[in-house]
């Protein structure tokens, strides 16, 4: 059974850097059939996909364009986890942050046919001075 | 970005009812659509991928259909655990945007 366990601070001041980690059990961050995603949820923005990392012979990352200049999603193969870093946070970044997996195995060879099937427990991040 | 809308915003129903939720995309997304159910305090749960493929373990009372820009999620014979908020997500283009959700509550 695949599980994702999130960790990281829940309170930040404006301009600080948000760092969250998602530890994987039951799967591998280096899997060639999975992608590892970050999503956030707030009352004002709803659910917002932030980006992903994945391994297909080499490491790849994709980001929401609106956040590309501020975020980095990266794997840590030694700890079988992946992380989110977001620079220069503002109160607008206050949200519940989730990590999630997409497993591209089963009924289709098209990677876009698969949704986010395993989620972390969520981390409430508050940005306030 | 592809905009995703959902209707209705709120829906009141009773146990045993059949309900239909709608999701629309601002441009064609073929069948690259997923549906999630979220209960308060929990992460979303994937119900359906690729418009109509039920995830393992999801009851058969859930079904999805559509293509292009209009999609539906139908829940037959509502169970108590189905009173929740439902989100659709397009997986056609970055960023993979979500709809604002439909909340199904008890009449």
Q: Taking Cα atoms only, what radius of gyration of chain B do you get, to the nearest Å?
A: 13 Å
Provide the residue-averaged pLDDT of chain A.
96
State the helix count of chain B: 0
Strand percentage of chain A lies at over 45%
Please state the structural category of chain B: mainly beta
Low-confidence stretches of chain A: none
Strand order of the largest sheet of chain B: 2-10-9-4-5-6
Anisotropy-based shape of chain B: globular
Give a structural overview.
- The complex is a heterodimer of chains A (129) and B (107).
- In chain A, the strands form 2 sheets. In chain A, strands 2, 4, 5, 6, 9, 10 and 11 form a 7-stranded mixed β-sheet that branches.
- Chain A is mostly beta strands and 129 residues long.
- The relative contact order of chain A is 0.31.
- Chain A is 0% helix and 53% strand.
- Chain A is globular and about 45 Å long.
- Chain A has no helices and 11 strands.
- With 107 residues, chain B is an all-beta fold.
- The N and C termini of chain B lie far apart (36 Å).
- In chain B, the strands form 2 sheets. In chain B, strands 2-10-9-4-5-6 form a 6-stranded mixed β-sheet, with no helix packed on it. In chain B, strands 1-3-8-7 form a 4-stranded antiparallel β-sheet, with no helix packed on it.
- In chain B, a hairpin with a 6-residue loop joins β4 and β5.
- Chain B contains no helices and 10 strands.
- The interface between A and B is medium-sized, with 25 and 27 residues.
């Amino acid at each position: 059974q695949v599980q994702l366990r999130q960790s990281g601070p829940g309170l930040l001041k404006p301009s600080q850097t948000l760092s969250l980690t998602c530890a994987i059990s039951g799967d591998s961050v280096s899997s060639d059939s999975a992608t590892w995603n970050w999503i956030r949820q707030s009352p004002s923005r709803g659910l917002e996909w932030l980006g992903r990392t994945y391994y297909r012979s080499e490491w790849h990352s994709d980001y929401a364009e609106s956040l590309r200049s501020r975020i980095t999603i990266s794997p840590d193969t030694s700890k079988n986890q992946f992380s989110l870093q977001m620079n220069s946070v503002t109160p607008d970044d206050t949200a519940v942050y989730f990590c999630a997996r997409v497993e591209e195995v089963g009924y289709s060879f098209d990677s876009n046919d698969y949704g986010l099937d395993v989620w972390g427990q969520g981390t409430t991040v508050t940005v306030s001075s | 970005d592809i905009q995703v809308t959902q209707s209705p915003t709120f829906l009141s129903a009773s146990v045993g009812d059949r309900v239909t939720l709608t999701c629309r995309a601002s441009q064609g997304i073929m069948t690259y659509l997923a549906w999630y159910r979220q209960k308060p305090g929990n992460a979303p749960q994937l119900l359906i991928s690729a418009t109509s493929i039920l995830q393992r373990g999801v009851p058969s009372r859930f079904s999805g259909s559509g293509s292009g820009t209009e999609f539906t999620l139908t829940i037959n014979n509502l169970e108590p655990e189905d009173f929740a908020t439902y989100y659709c997500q397009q997986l056609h283009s970055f960023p993979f945007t979500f709809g604002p959700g439909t909340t199904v509550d008890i009449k």
